[in-house]
Amino acid sequence: MSHPSGSHPSGMSYVEIGVSDAERSLDFYRGLLGLRPAEAPPEPPAPDVHWLTAEGALVKLVVRDPGAVPEGPLGGWVGDDLQRGMRHFGLKVGDVYRQAERLRSADVPFTVEPVRAVGDVNLAFFTDPDGALLEIIDGHLTYHEVTTPELADRERRLAENRSPDADPVFDHVAVTSGDLDATLAYYRDELGYPVIGRLVHDQDPRGFVIDYLQAGGAVLEVFTYTAAETVPAPDPARDRLGLRAIGLAAETGRAVDPHGVPLRRVSNGSGSASGSGAGER
């Protein structure tokens, strides 16, 4: 079942990111990346929580408890995509190279410089002030396998109409799974997120494959490896910096997904950025 308008009632509502300094992180996400304060967050106000909109979904910044016992800078998260769980948060932009120059002028550290990548898109990876991994991407993916043609075609049309000067919009959250069947059984079969398509990185000796699921106005990228063993996700109970959880406008049925991602239930049924043109990937 597809939802080409990006309006799936149980879609991805937000990504939760732990930060150490609210002012510094708001300067980064609002001042540098151009995200805006959310007008109607899906949860009641709470101390040290800041909501931003990026069109297709929201970003929830949570100031980490300063009294929490540190367990490494990102609470067990490591920069190796063989680790299961959340890997990065992605924003669609009008021009990756232009955005990268702006970030570089602000001394933002890049982990992957702008490059033409598998799928015929431009992308780059960088980190926020606390080390959370972010991606910017432009264009539209040329999938090796297309499962839902109308969703792939919609991506193409939106990309062709996006100005090089367009503000960033919420594009995706990437996760690594150790069991694709279990992941699809939950997100596709139980929550109803249709598979858009697949990319196969045939030059990667680990057997790297990405499946793309439409989760409301955003996309869930599922990484699997056919020739390498994955390792467990960080402890979901840690009050950590960096990528922490996904908020879903659905009865999730569980607190952690099949690959170790903490899930937050959005109680008021708001599955997207209110008043923000959700779904315009």
UniProtKB/TrEMBL annotation:
Region: Disordered; residue ranges are 257-281
- Which molecular function term from Gene Ontology is one that the record holds? methylmalonyl-CoA epimerase activity
| Pfam hit, one | Glyoxalase
Q: Which domain of life is it from?
A: Bacteria
Q: What SUPFAM superfamilies does this protein's entry cite?
A: Glyoxalase/Bleomycin resistance protein/Dihydroxybiphenyl dioxygenase
Q: Which InterPro entries did the record assign?
A: Glyas_Bleomycin-R_OHBP_Dase, Glyas_Fos-R_dOase_dom, MMCE/EMCE_epimerase, VOC_core
GO biological process per UniProt: L-methylmalonyl-CoA metabolic process
Fetch the Gene3D superfamilies from UniProt: 2,3-Dihydroxybiphenyl 1,2-Dioxygenase, domain 1
Q: What UniProt keywords are attached to this protein's entry?
A: Metal-binding
For bias type Gly residues, the affected ranges are 272-281
Query: Which residue numbers delimit the VOC domain?
Result: 11-139, 169-281
Query: Which first-to-last residue range defines the signal peptide?
Result: none
Quote the protein name from its UniProt record: VOC domain-containing protein
Protein's organism: Streptomyces triticirhizae
